[in-house]
Amino acid sequence: VQLVESGGGLVQPGGSLRLSCAASGFTLANYAIGWFRQVPGKEREGVSCISSTSDLMTKYSDSVNGRFTISRDNAKNTVYLQMNSLKPEDTAIYYCARRMNYYCSLTRGYDYYGQGTQVTVSS
């Protein structure tokens, strides 16, 4: 199982980034995927998740709801996180993770994480 994040970088406040999570070693269509972020010295925060059920249910933390959009392309074995209206407080390392279930959760049930990609929002 491997998850590889990409798309991070430096962006000005109000800008946008799209993160990608490339999955390999398992059938992406059978698993929910989540995005998490962590700032050094703070606990990891669940940002968003998407189920693998037919309705592709999604969840967002209150801090990103309305600004971030998660999506998945099972044919490309990739999950995306579109981040708009970025704020300095969005600065963190962003990780994607595989959940041991079809259904979505922002907190528990994840067994594999990627290595992370740095997102810095600063002027």
Structure description:
Helix content is 0%, strand content 49%. The protein contains no helices and eleven strands. The chain has strands at residues 2-6, 9-11, 17-24, 33-38, 45-50, 58-60, 68-73, 78-83, 92-99, 110-113, 117-121. The strands form two sheets. Strands 2, 4, 5, 6, 9, 10 and 11 form a seven-stranded mixed sheet that branches. It has a four-stranded antiparallel sheet with strand order 1-3-8-7, with no helix packed on it. Strand 5 and strand 6 form a beta hairpin. The termini are far apart.
Distance between the termini: 37 Å
Parts with pLDDT < 50 across at least 5 consecutive residues: none
Beta percentage is over 45%
**What average pLDDT do the residues reach?**
97
Number of DSSP strands? 11
* Helix-strand pattern: EEEEEEEEEEE
Task: State the helicity in percent bands.
Answer: under 10%
* Rg calculated over all Cα atoms: 13 Å
Total number of helical segments? 0
Q: Given the C-alpha coordinates, what overall shape results?
A: globular
Q: What is the secondary structure topology, with strand pairs?
A:
Elements (H helix, E strand, L loop, with lengths): L1 E5 L2 E3 L5 E8 L8 E6 L6 E6 L7 E3 L7 E6 L4 E6 L8 E8 L10 E4 L3 E5 L2
Parallel strand pairs: 2-11
Antiparallel strand pairs: 1-3, 3-8, 4-5, 4-9, 5-6, 7-8, 9-10, 9-11
Characteristics:
mainly beta; single chain; 11 strands; 123 residues; four-stranded antiparallel beta sheet
